[in-house]
Amino acid sequence: MISLSKGQRIAIFSALALVVIIIALPKTVPFDEESQKVSVEGAEGSIEVQIAEGVSSVLRSGAPMQGIMMLRQVLEKEPGNVKANLALAVFSVVSGQYEKAFDRFQLVIGAEQKDESAARFLAETYAREGKIEMIIGPMMEYRATVEDQAIQKQVDELINELNKI
Length: 165
Known about the structure:
This protein is an all-alpha fold and 165 residues long. The protein is built from eight helices and two strands. The chain has one domain (6-164): Serine Threonine Protein Phosphatase 5, Tetratricopeptide repeat (Alpha Horseshoe), CATH 1.25.40.
């Protein structure tokens, strides 16, 4: 088996997490051709559509703040929306705004409709900040939500390695 350093594992976990989010969400965004603005009001009124468009706008347009604003508008309507909070948390990590990411991941983990990836993302964010002692709790929460035994074994190995540090 290939031995990976802690930094390499964190980088791999982060990359995989981002790929999962990108794959899971729709990729189209309606643009107004003349003004190059994303249409939020005409988004068929669906919160889910607005979230998908916001994420897509951040990932694919030259103006990611428009997508961030769409996600914030969703949270103005539904402050506890798990998908919008999770997306903003991930984008906070990408932009280096770790404190915002910690808060949003905690909201997602505490929600009734838990997202199994939130605990993993929170652990990765702690790792990026060098807060090794804070990683084990979220990783154990993530392990409890995952049914795949191979992933559980990987999490156990990572936790054991972290306990040695």
